[in-house]
Amino acid sequence: MLKNVRGSVRCLALGATLAGSLLVTARAGFAATITTIKPGILQVCLYPGFKPFAWKDGNVWKGWDVDYLTAFAKANHLAFKVVEEPAFNDIWLRPGKNECDIAGTGISDTQDRRKATGSAGQWSATYYTVVRAFLVRTADQEKLKDIGDLRGKTVIVTAGSTADYDLRNRLQQANIENVTIESTNDEVEAAGKIRKGPQFAYGGGYGSVKDLATDGLAVVWPHCNMVKVGENDFKPYAEPFSFVARAKSTGLLAALNGYIPKHKYEGTPNPASVKCQNPPWVGK
Q1: pLDDT digits (tens, 9 = 90+) for 21-67
Q2: Of 18, 93, 172, 174, whose CA is between 20 and 30 Å from 56?
Q3: Domains in the chain, please, with CATH?
Q4: Rounded to whole angstroms, what are the CA distances from 247 to 77, 116, 169, 239, 254?
């Protein structure tokens, strides 16, 4: 009888211990399975030149991606820390090079970028979809309705961005050569140049361009992203944004893909008049 009582006490104690362990795991959610470069800290590569996705107000980071990933980190009991990147181009490669756990700042999910990241970087589910647009002076807003209207003009784009690819692909498709493309790593500065001239337009995502459209500037020609699908073949697609996670940060991609469908992204809605087909590689 005494042995049975002792056995029952042991079972109750073991059960209580297991129940407590399961409760801690349940409360922690994905945090119990995520490993990061620095334990307990989610390091995020961000580029400060894409307002409203990410920018700096003095030393304070702000923006849609900043808010979204800060909330994601908090939900998974991780501290949020920014790793600042001076240029946007190739930011999607940084997690695979162990510079951060996640890369953000409006990264368009493209086949070329997926190929470049290889197995070291993992693309998350789509969290936002945008269309392309241009920023011009209000006085010039009736002068840009298609790619042909850029003949003989100077257009600014962020180097290595989707706007850069979209512009070059459309010019190649239309066999237009007399357009000067100026690169920037500061879209606010680019907007200032458009305002003063002689540059004619700045190309960017609809949300970014709409945010810049103040003091005599206007958003024109919202359109799908022109993607090169062959040596001389092009197709307009929707432009999905994804985060890129470091493959060695185990559990991180699963956590992101579990979080994204349940949490609405703040971004500016696209114009209802622009309908774009999703690219076939997204979600694969």
Answers
A1: 333 333 334 345 899 999 999 999 999 988 899 999 999 999 999 99
A2: 93
A3: 33-129+240-262 (3.40.190.10), 132-237 (3.40.190.10)
A4: 20, 14, 31, 24, 11
